[in-house]
Design goal:
Elements (H helix, E strand, L loop, with lengths): L21 H11 L11 E2 L6 E2 L10
Antiparallel strand pairs: 1-2
Length: 63
């Protein structure tokens, strides 16, 4: 982070796969208030069938 040169700094774990357009929604919130910290809704990919399940909007920072 000390040598970052961009306007916004994002951190993702190495196992995260993002979908098209994921960044736009997060940046919209940051543009409203530069001190905002955002966290996306994290969907679940089932290990046995690779089925994508929509994440809950009322759970933060869980695994």
């Amino acid at each position: 982070a000390k040598i970052a040169t961009g306007e916004t700094l994002m951190f993702l774990d190495s196992h995260v796969e993002v979908l098209n357009g994921w960044l736009l929604y997060l940046l919209e919130e940051i543009q409203k208030d530069r001190k905002t910290i955002v966290c996306p809704i994290i969907d679940v990919l089932t290990w046995d069938a690779f089925q994508l399940l929509q994440g809950a909007t009322d759970i933060f920072g869980t695994f």
